[in-house]
Amino acid sequence: MASLEERVSYLEGAHTSLATKADVAELRAELKADIARVETTIIKWIVGTMISSVAVACTLTLVIDRLLG
Fold this sequence. Notes:
Elements: H1 4-14, H2 21-68
């Protein structure tokens, strides 16, 4: 069985960079922040779209009512 040093040197040769737990935790935090930011943006767009849709529907209803009434 290969010694620990041999195994580590093999891994270092096979991979240009190895991530530590801290690196992975930092990346995970960055990804969570990015996902939260995108989610917030999507929610804002959905709310804005719904408000404008209701405004258009109300306007059309008012116009049709005045034309027919």
